[in-house]
Amino acid sequence: MRIVRSEGSGRVGADKSRAGARAATRFAGSRAKKFLSYYKPYRGLLFADLLSAVIISAAALLMPVCANFITKNLLGSAAVPGAIDKIYLLGGVMLALVGIQTLCTLFVDYQGHVMGAKMERDMRRELFEHYQKLSFSFYDRQRTGQLMTRITNDLYSLAELYHHGPEDLAIAPLEMTGVLIILAHIDRTLTLIVLGFLPVMFLFALHFSRRMTAALRLSKDRIGDINARVEDSLAGIRVVKSFTNEGFETTRFNYENDRFLASRSEEYRSEAWFSGGMAAFTQLITIAVIVFGAAGIARSALDLADLLTFLMCIAVLIDPIRRLVNFARLYQEGSTGFDRFFEMLQMEQDLPDQTGAAELTDVRGDISFRSVSFRYSDDSPMVLKDLSLEIRAGEFVALVGLRASARPRSAR
User: 150 or 162: whose pLDDT is higher?
Assistant: First the structure.
């Protein structure tokens, strides 16, 4: 037996693969463009928010620098004229930094959340308007509870990502870079020890963030199932009570509720490993600095003032790590919500308006149907078939089932 490879089919398969890759790239590009488009009306507020975040980072970095200058250059120099005045001056500078940092934090927390809430409002309005345009067949295939979840819970998660995402991405790299520069200036060996923890932390975070993504997606689907079950049961509550089916409805609800609990438990398990592991890594970094820094002091390779500054910088380094952890959590929740939101916006009408269709306004006169046929989908039966009908001005016509009845009335 001889197997002959068809070059033509191979080329066709390769062309399909490339076409699929291009389609996926276009989809990802349109998705990213759509995600960023909601920032456009609030660019000024976003810029002010990011500027405040940068000021917060700069103030946090200047604090250990001032402390290092005091402990290393001014302590023990009380006999030098002006040393105490310089200490008080630097103390005033540090107080001013705290005040500026507090004001910027208040602005970020309030105005940033307001910006996120406004973007959430815009997305909810757009999704609701899109719901109004979709055809009956769409609602035949969808459950109302799932649609409600996409317009409520999913968008709330997105608002948190829209607000905190840019701040965390602006503050965390700036603080981490600044801290590492200061640490490297104090002691390169200790800095390399700290850097040795970061790749392990990254791999750990990447593993559990993927688990969180899958669990979050499942939780959002199942809370939608709960909403759908509640909506169906309450909408038909008169029928349920008439046939004493309360126990049956309760059993169906408990099934959906238990499924949601199982997915939520998996989400919390992944989040607990994620948060607990990152907290443990930060504690290990602090312990390593204390141990190896004390050994450096014992060898006279490091002085106590530098070790104290190093510990202050480690405390600052924990903040960008915490922000990156928070961003990872928000990104998982927000991106999952945006996927479900964008998925709905991609739904098209079964009968879209033609390009250039005219808007009918103040229409008066006779209406004529000539051989009109209609059905909702290709595999569904005909609703209308070869319908011809003349409706004169002032007549009211009702189509009931497969029969049409007309009853003329005088126009008023």
Answer: 162
323 assigned to some structural domain: yes
Residue 105 included in any domain: yes
- How far apart are alpha carbons 117 and 105 in whole angstroms? 18
By C-alpha distance, which of 133, 130, 126 is closest to 352? 133
Number of domains in the chain: 1
- For the residues 354-379, what does the mean pLDDT come to? 78
**pLDDT number for residue 95:** 92
Tell me the pTM: 0.62
Amino acid in the structure at residue 303: D
Cβ–Cβ under 8 Å, residues 225 and 232: no
404 falls in which pLDDT band (50, 70, 90)?
very low
Instruction: Identify whether 38 is part of a domain.
Output: yes
Find the domain containing 260 and state its range. 25-345
* Residue 182, domain member (yes or no): yes
CATH number of the structural domain spanning residue 311? 1.20.1560.10
What tokens does 340 get?
A: 């479900």
Q: Mapped to the 3 state alphabet, what secondary structure does the chain carry?
A: CCCCCCHHHHHHHHHHHHHHHHHHHHHHHHHHHHHHHCCHHHHHHHHHHHHHHHHHHHHHHHHHHHHHHHHHHHCCCCCCCCHHHHHHHHHHHHHHHHHHHHHHHHHHHHHHHHHHHHHHHHHHHHHHHHHHHCCHHHHHHCCHHHHHHHHCHHHHHHHHHHHHHHHHHHHHHHHHHHHHHHHHHHCHHHHHHHHHHHHHHHHHHHHHHHHHHHHHHHHHHHHHHHHHHHHHHHHCHHHHHHCCCHHHHHHHHHHHHHHHHHHHHHHHHHHHHHHHHHHHHHHHHHHHHHHHHHHHHHCCCCCHHHHHHHHHHHHHHHHHHHHHHHHHHHHHHHHHHHHHHHHHHCCCCCCCCCCCCCCCCCCCCCEEEEEEEECCCCCCCCCEEEEEEEECCCEEEEEECCEEEEEECCCC
- Contacts with 7 (C-beta within 8 Å, 6 or more apart), sequence order: none
Give kind and range of the element (H or E) at residue 157: helix 153-186
Start-to-end Cα distance in the chain: 86
Per-residue pLDDT of 27-77, as tens digits, reads: 556 778 888 889 999 999 899 988 988 898 888 888 888 887 877 777 654
